[in-house]
């Protein structure tokens, strides 16, 4: 089994090294790793955020473990050379259209949630986010209006095949859980969303055992803090899913907790924390490594056929939290390394 390790920028390398330690403890040398630069690190080393050698490694590997990309020093580069293009490029090139972002409250963290504990305790949901379409990948640019004003534009578009395939992932995911699927859109305003809703309803005919409902994204954002326990599986587009998943992370305690899987049609995947490179805390040993460690667990389950090992890692994370280990984002003082040590000790 070959795993591509793409640490990236900022806290990406700091959290990925801890995920690797946990994988080594669980699997020994059952996995071969190859590492390659990506994002700002790759731009500085090779002049491009996603060098051919990195993309080729990602293609060859059985799975990809990704840290984060983003470097303030690159924010004035032309867009094609910015670090974020690396993760967008990987998603596009590898066809990673299905992004699973589970958010479940660890019982020990009820007091770390931004919500009242009695509300937070009910959270056990999965956001299924479409990842290769929408406004992130539409035509974009700058132009001048008839009045001579500068204008920026980004085209939001989905075709029915793109919606149908993510709908199926949403229904299949719900089928393995509580059989409730909430589709989030903005069909009262956006034509893209009206098509999204129409296709969701068509696909629902193949899943009579799953209850489908629809929410506008503004209401969904409100419901997510009012009563998050109502959600089982949420299926939504690229932009709305990006925003709602950061929001869901604070409902369970921290953005440093949420892992993700980005899957292609055949189940090959890239695994990464949902957070970014966190330049404000990079290099200080403060980053919470749990999102990266839980992403490694998702990789074992979804791409490497090691569900029992994934269970073991997730149980160790819960035990470490139960033992009181907390990084700063969770109100504690543990360093990145100390938090991972607590997980290793609980394996
Ligand atoms: N998949 C990726 O590689 C992503 C990259 N980014 C990039 O990351 C850079 C920073 O973006 P931001 O908007 O600041 O989002 P961010 O997720 O990096 O950070 C947001 C806030 O959460 C905190 N935070 C994030 N991860 C944490 C962790 N593991 N432990 C403790 N605290 C944590 C940060 O310190 C910061 O205050 C940008 O260049 C952005 O484009 C953002 C999101 C995803
Ligand atoms: C960095 C962006 C391209 C994406 C993002 O914020 C995310 O996927 O969560
Ligand atoms: Mg995001």
UniProtKB/TrEMBL annotation:
Pfam families referenced in this protein's UniProt entry, alphabetically: Iso_dh (PF00180)
Cellular compartments annotated: Cytoplasm
Metabolic or biological pathway, per its Swiss-Prot or TrEMBL entry: Amino-acid biosynthesis; L-leucine biosynthesis; L-leucine from 3-methyl-2-oxobutanoate: step 3/4
Superkingdom, taxonomy of origin: Bacteria
Binding site for NAD(+): 276-288
EC numbers on record: 1.1.1.85
Residue(s) at site: Important for catalysis: 136, 186
Gene Ontology BP term (one): L-leucine biosynthetic process
Reactions this protein catalyses: (2R,3S)-3-isopropylmalate + NAD(+) = 4-methyl-2-oxopentanoate + CO2 + NADH
InterPro entries from the UniProt entry: IsoCit/isopropylmalate_DH_CS, IsoPropMal-DH-like_dom, Isopropylmalate_DH
Gene3D superfamilies xref list: Isopropylmalate Dehydrogenase
Enzyme class per UniProt: oxidoreductase
PANTHER family: 3-ISOPROPYLMALATE DEHYDROGENASE
Sequence similarity: Belongs to the isocitrate and isopropylmalate dehydrogenases family. LeuB type 1 subfamily.
HAMAP family assigned to the protein according to its UniProt record, in alphabetical order: LeuB_type1
Protein name: 3-isopropylmalate dehydrogenase
Source organism (scientific name): Sphingomonas jatrophae
Phylogenetic lineage: Bacteria, Pseudomonadati, Pseudomonadota, Alphaproteobacteria, Sphingomonadales
Gene name, Swiss-Prot/TrEMBL: leuB
